[in-house]
Amino acid sequence: MQKKALVVGVSGITGGNLAETLLAHDWTVYGLARTPGTGPDGLIPVAADLLNLDSLNTALAAVSPTHVFITSWMRNDTEAENIRVNSLMVRNLLTAVSPKKTVQHVALVTGLKHYLGPFEAYAKAGTLPLTPVREEHPRLTIENFYYAQEDEVYAAAERDGFTWSIHRPHTVIGKAVGNMMNMGTTLAVYASICKETGRSFQFPGSAAQWNGISDVTDARLLAQHMLWAATTEAAHNQAFNVANGDVFRWNWLWLQLANWFGIEARGFDGAIRPLEAELAHDGALWAAIAAKYGLTEPDLNRLASAWHTDLDLSRPIEVMTDMAKSRKLGFTGYQDTRDSFVDLFTRLRAERLIP
């Protein structure tokens, strides 16, 4: 049977890379977003509002997916509102695809906030897990919209009989424009501004992150993992951590990133120096850089998500991800982290998103 994927959030880092991977494996791929825009050759765009069930029913009337990949979420001012909105998005989607009874598997992408806590209590005392984080860790005893999203998937699976997988990546590194959590492109923009202005490439985070062990998740590897879980029976009805498979310290990687751009790197100097404040007044500067070098995106805020990079780099503990569960079940994917950043920077330059 021809596999038909509905990739929800196809304009984001995870969804876009997943669509490319599925198309390369000869899947039929529908890409759903509020404004899907352009995508890889072969992608069938679907425009719909996940908060509007009527919109979904209309948009998906002619779509009968065998597999649904949910990579989308919406940030709100409070965790209570995050729970309400993001659970509704998943519930509406799975309600809309339910009547045709064609769905065999649903994959949901969440992340390490499953272990570290939601935005309101992120990596704070009382929520800090033992690391490396493992899937067996129980849920935290605080509200978390990831839990609400999972519960919607479990309920729909019970109702409709499909299998599921939950994917918990660390910070995802990959190309997207307009994404809400985009460390790789944020650092590329910051480094480009430093190069243009002569500023030092100052590490913005904590001593724990500068000196501790960390890992990240390449969007291409996450796509491979989602494809593997969707098509491997032993991986069905399981939650998985997903990371590159190597570890690093920022006190090494920061210099590697600076060297690629040919700029001066400055490490942790005793204080957290938020990147959000550093870039707060650089909108006009970036627009001028874009005009000077003929870049395709002059809006700094569509490339950089400094608040999210600060969230990750200011954590008070080192954070890394245990991948033993996936390895035992046969997933052997691996990605060198330095290459993740270099490949991204090279692509951003080739597509004229950075000078």
Structural summary, described in words:
Helix content is 41%, strand content 14%. It is an alpha/beta fold. The chain folds into two domains: 4-169, Rossmann fold; 178-215 and 247-319 and 336-351, no CATH class. It has a seven-stranded parallel beta sheet with strand order 3-2-1-4-5-6-11, with helices on both faces. The chain has a two-stranded parallel ribbon with strand order 7-10. Helix 1 packs across helix 8 and helix 3 (79-97) packs parallel to helix 5 (145-160). The N and C termini lie far apart (45 Å). Pfam families: PRISE. Residues 66-355 form the PRISE-like Rossmann-fold domain. This is Nucleoside-diphosphate-sugar epimerase.
> What is the distance, rounded to the nearest whole angstrom, between the alpha carbons of the first and last residues?
45 Å
Share in β-strands: 5-15%
Give the number of helices.
14
The low-confidence parts are: none
Layout of strands and helices, then pairs:
Elements: E1 4-8, H1 13-24, E2 28-33, E3 44-47, H2 53-59, E4 67-70, H3 79-97, E5 105-109, H4 113-116, H5 145-160, E6 163-169, E7 172-173, H6 183-197, E8 201-202, H7 207-211, E9 213-214, E10 217-218, H8 219-231, E11 238-242, E12 248-249, H9 250-261, E13 265-266, H10 275-279, H11 283-293, H12 306-313, H13 324-328, H14 337-350
Helix pairs in contact: 1-8, 3-5
